[in-house]
Amino acid sequence: MKAEQQEDAAPAGLDGEAVAAAPHVRQAVEIRGLWKQFGERIAVSGIDLDIPAGQFVGLVGPNGAGKTTTLSMVTGLLRPDSGTVRIVGHDVWRDPVAVKSRIGVLPEGLRLFERLSGRELLTYMGALRGLPDEETERRASQLLDVLDLGSAQHKLVIDYSTGMRKKIGLATALLHNPEVLFLDEPFEGVDPVSAQTIRGVLERYTNSGATVVFSSHVMELVESLCDWVAVLATGKIRARGSLDEVRGDAPSLQDAFLELVGAGGRAGSGDSLDWLDGGGAR
């Protein structure tokens, strides 16, 4: 496998040689020594990671790997115990205003102002972002149309389905035209039609030169969307690089991922469930 697979490797956006050979690569996100512990449990263990700009980036890992904790620290929602994060050159904790003006965030378990309609929510978010009223209305109308929310724009958000909530949340994250968009499990619980709509908007966004970083544990989705991948397990980066580099000689990203996280041999074989035979032996 060509991608870097060291648990505590030196900081690198690609592998060490690639960084030395291509110093012109612009980084959207630079993470150094990021660490977070909850009581006795280490959630994130000294992560070093550079994410290249203008890419569709997947942060993948099993449940409990530290993906949500990492994204929460990177976006300034959770303070790390140690380490630094820079987004398009600005320190997340020393220059939060500059960072927040350049990023859009769709966090896990998104909480919205449910007593506002979809249109009112976007108008309110535009005011918070300091956008002129006319520009907010223009962008809101386009987002509602592209995300297929036009017919629901005057409904209260509390009455939105899961897919509609994800779409209006994405609209609020895109409204101010950020340079980097962070999405935590954006397709979780979303119906296929809404998922296809979200996917189309994100592909259009990255084609414009912006960066999308999204977490997922669905390898097929990551493989179909992403240019660049970082694999996280037990709070550490296990591999990083282009999709082809991380996949290596494995037939799929799923197979490579299972090997990287040490689950390649777990396929339900053995005698531990020998009683499970469709009810024949109770």
General description of the model:
- There is one protein chain.
- The protein is globular.
- Helix content is 34%, strand content 23%.
- By secondary structure, the chain is an alpha/beta fold.
- The strands form two sheets. It has a six-stranded mixed sheet with strand order 6-7-8-3-9-10, with helices on both faces. A four-stranded antiparallel sheet has the order 2-1-4-5, with helices on one face.
- The chain has a domain of 115 residues: Rossmann fold (3-Layer(aba) Sandwich), CATH 3.40.50.
- It has ten helices and ten strands.
Keyword list:
282 residues; alpha/beta; Rossmann fold; six-stranded mixed β-sheet; four-stranded antiparallel β-sheet; 10 helices; globular
Strand-helix topology:
Elements: H1 16-21, E1 27-38, E2 41-52, E3 56-60, H2 67-74, E4 82-87, E5 90-91, H3 96-102, E6 103-106, H4 118-128, H5 133-146, H6 162-174, E7 180-184, H7 192-207, E8 211-216, H8 219-225, E9 228-233, E10 236-242, H9 243-247, H10 253-260
Parallel strand pairs: 3-8, 3-9, 6-7, 7-8
Antiparallel strand pairs: 1-2, 1-4, 4-5, 9-10
